[in-house]
Design a protein that fits this description.
Blueprint lengths: L14 E3 L2 H9 L6 E9 L5 H11 L8 E4 L4 E4 L5 H4 E5 L7 H9 L10 E7 L4 E9 L5 H12 L17 H13 L18 E9 H11 L3 H21 L6 E8 L13 E8 L6 H18 L1 H10 L3 H11 L9 E7 L3 E2 L2 E2 L2 E6 L7 E8 L2 E9 L8 H14 L1
Parallel strand pairs: 5-6, 11-15
Antiparallel strand pairs: 1-4, 2-7, 2-14, 3-4, 6-7, 8-16, 9-10, 12-13, 15-16
Protein name: Wax ester/triacylglycerol synthase domain-containing protein
Organism: Streptomyces lienomycini
Pfam families: WS_DGAT_cat
Length: 414
């Protein structure tokens, strides 16, 4: 389904079939809600709860994706005609949350409404004096990070349009199809050693963040002929190496991770369901220097782009029966094989809400399927936010953001 076609009565279709990736998230979470959060932090006087509800009430009827709920027993999305805004827009106060981590933990742990309405909500979280956060939450079985980005802007922004344009679809190459098939075959292989991330899962998560000017990442990229995502991944590789070396005295082998990629096409911005695939990548944590790590990352991502791996996996999933593809998808992003998803999300221009401009944005999701961490770089306007969501069993993983900044500094020194 590329677009939601209106019926003869001008209404949205009464139900929409869940796609392969949607069912994969449903299976990975064992039917529970796996939250996806888009959090926007502001400085300045906070809006009132009533004014946020008024904004949501004005916008919600024009956003198709917000009018569906998940019927898990039928693996379909069912249309909901009436939205009770007061049930979807809430308020919290966290006056001691100086770094946003408490807000993130609240959004990842607070149960979502269990009634028959759509699984999404908006939170106005009051932080320390002069600071507040607006959060849009949904279920990962319903929407991916880029889908949440389009919805959050349309629902909350003073300008509901904007954001990065969806990528056009292209014909995959033979090399790309071979690489994607290799990922699928590998999903049924033996477990992969990931000493820094292997072990028990408690199911409870902690969150840490750090911000950096986007210009710094771009400047490092210009020095080495790399993209912002390349710089992010290379610095993360070196951060994991340093972290593991400090904890154990041993070097870490190359770290397998899942790289999510959006395949949301033009016209699908507000369609319910996930429009994404993943590709397996080895982060060069065995590389002694961040410069060496960056060279290897640039080579790896260059091969992915040249082979059009994004389009290859999209085509492969489309050609696979949903039940089979969903089970393969669960295996592709499982703690047996990868440390977790590592993604880069570009929100585009900064969100403005009631005249205030968000100073940072962060995309978050929780852990499932034996995964012990989810690491995301979220960019908006001139700021990038690194977010590390990790199982509490990884007691010192909150050191990763500072180690990532240290690796970035080494890259700047060349």
């Amino acid at each position: 389904m590329k677009r939601l076609r209106l019926g003869r009565d001008g209404r949205l279709p009464p139900s929409v079939t869940m796609g392969t990736v949607d069912v994969a998230f449903h299976l990975a979470a064992h039917g529970r809600v796996l939250p996806v959060v888009f959090a926007f932090e502001f400085d300045g006087r906070a809006p009132t709860l009533d004014s946020v509800r008024e904004r949501v009430a004005e916008r919600v009827h024009g956003i198709p994706s917000l009018h569906y709920r998940i019927a898990r027993d039928r693996l379909r999305y069912l249309r909901v005609d009436r939205i009770a805004v007061d049930r979807h827009v809430h308020e919290a106060r966290l006056p001691d949350d100086t770094d946003g981590s408490a807000t993130s933990r609240l959004m990842l742990s607070r149960p979502m409404g269990a009634d028959e309405g759509p699984h999404w909500d908006v939170w106005l979280v009051h932080g320390p004096a002069g600071r507040h956060t607006l959060c849009y939450r949904t279920d990962h079985a319903f929407q991916d990070g880029m889908g949440a980005a389009y919805t959050a802007r349309a629902l909350l922004g003073d300008d509901p349009d904007g954001g990065p344009a969806p990528l056009p679809r292209r014909r995959p190459t033979v090399l790309g199809l071979a690489g994607s098939l290799g990922d699928v075959v590998g999903a049924f292989g033996a477990a992969t050693a990931k000493p820094a991330f292997d072990g028990v899962c408690t199911g409870r998560v902690d969150v840490s963040h750090t911000d950096v000017p986007l210009a710094r990442l771009r400047a490092v990229g210009a020095l080495y002929g790399a993209t912002v995502t390349d710089v992010f991944l290379a610095a993360l590789s070196h951060a994991v190496r340093t972290w593991h070396l400090k904890e154990t005295g041993a070097a870490h082998p190359p770290l397998p991770v899942a790289i999510p990629m959006s395949v949301r096409a033009p016209g699908e911005e507000h369609v319910p369901g996930n429009r994404m695939i993943t590709a397996r990548m080895l982060l060069p944590c065995d590389e002694e220097s961040p410069q060496g790590a960056l060279a290897r990352v640039v080579a790896a991502t260059g091969r992915m782009r040249t082979a059009r791996r994004r389009d290859a996996m999209r085509l492969l999933l489309a050609a696979t029966p949903r039940s089979v593809g969903a089970r393969v998808g669960v295996r592709l992003v499982h703690g047996r094989l990868v440390a977790g998803p590592v993604s880069s999300v570009n929100f585009g221009t900064a969100l403005e809400h009631q005249g205030l401009t968000a100073r940072r944005a962060a995309v978050l999701t929780s852990v499932a399927s034996g995964i012990r961490s989810v690491i995301t770089l979220t960019s908006q306007h001139d700021t990038a936010c690194l977010s590390v969501v990790h199982d509490e069993a990884l007691r010192t993983a909150d050191e990763l953001p500072d180690l990532w900044l240290a690796a970035l500094l080494e890259l700047e020194r060349r």
